[in-house]
From TrEMBL:
Pfam families: NTPase_1. Coiled coil: none annotated. The lineage of its organism: Archaea, Methanobacteriati, Methanobacteriota, Stenosarchaea group, Methanomicrobia. It comes from Methanoculleus receptaculi. This is Nucleoside-triphosphatase. GO terms for molecular function: ATP binding; ribonucleoside triphosphate phosphatase activity.
Length: 239
């Protein structure tokens, strides 16, 4: 059912859904952040959410939600009781943060979005809560390549629940950040070419260019790559 991180195909005309997976606490969000750090310098138009977690006394205590399109953030949930909040598991989800996240996950305009990120899809979504309705809408519409993070033990259930036929599974225990970023960039480039080709008016020529090398080198170093590692360079995309 699944392809490796360096292989993907548009099955049934659909862009791939990259699924970053691993055990609980295996730094799926960190891996995702490093992948995004390697591609944002190539002018990729990213939408969606990333949810870094917080730890208190050695246990997960909550999450912050970041809108990747705007950089704005909200406290998503906490283990601290709050009567205003939705309770899922041991977490109290702030209603304003849930509304914030659902806006960020609204079906995108395919002409102005290259990549959609959902961090993370888990047991609450499988129970029909949190981002479940947003995911239903996303997979029901034409969408660009996507990246989801999913806990390993829930992987097959998530794929079946949302009927993902074109999953590219990236296991953080074995995958390379650089190779994953390269595969995502290939998918983005094919998506942009398809969108340009489908327009009635010819798309403006897109020249090759080199993104900010200092930023990419810094991001590669943060991802554990040496300064001599190859930098992923792709064409700059027109707004």
């Amino acid at each position: 059912m699944y392809s490796g991180a360096n292989v993907y195909s548009y099955m049934n005309g659909r862009p791939p859904v990259f699924i970053i997976t691993g055990e609980q606490g295996q730094c799926k969000t960190t891996f995702l952040h490093q992948v995004l750090g390697l591609i944002v310098g190539a002018n990729v138009r990213v939408r969606g959410i990333i949810a870094p977690g917080h730890v208190r006394d050695g246990r997960r205590s909550g999450f912050t939600l970041v809108d990747l399109a705007t950089g704005e953030h909200e406290e998503l949930c906490s283990i601290d009781p709050d009567p205003r909040c939705e309770v899922h598991g041991r977490f109290y989800f702030r209603p304003e943060a849930l509304a914030f996240g659902r806006r960020a996950l609204a079906p995108p305009d395919p002409r102005s979005t290259d990549l959609l990120v959902v961090d993370e899809v888990g047991r609450f979504e499988l129970q029909g809560a949190v981002w479940a309705d947003s995911l239903d809408r996303l997979v029901g519409h034409p969408h660009p390549p996507m990246i989801w993070t999913v806990r390993r033990r829930l992987l097959h259930t998530v794929v079946e629940r949302w009927n993902i036929k074109n999953a590219v599974v990236v296991d953080v225990g074995a995958a390379s950040v650089m190779a994953t970023a390269d595969a995502v960039m290939d998918a983005v480039w094919e998506w942009r070419e398809a969108q340009a080709f489908s327009r009635v008016t010819p798309a403006a020529p897109q020249a090759d260019c080199i993104p900010c090398l200092s930023l990419l080198v810094a991001d590669a170093a943060a991802a554990g790559a040496s300064q001599n590692s190859p930098i992923i360079l792709r064409r700059c995309y027109s707004p």
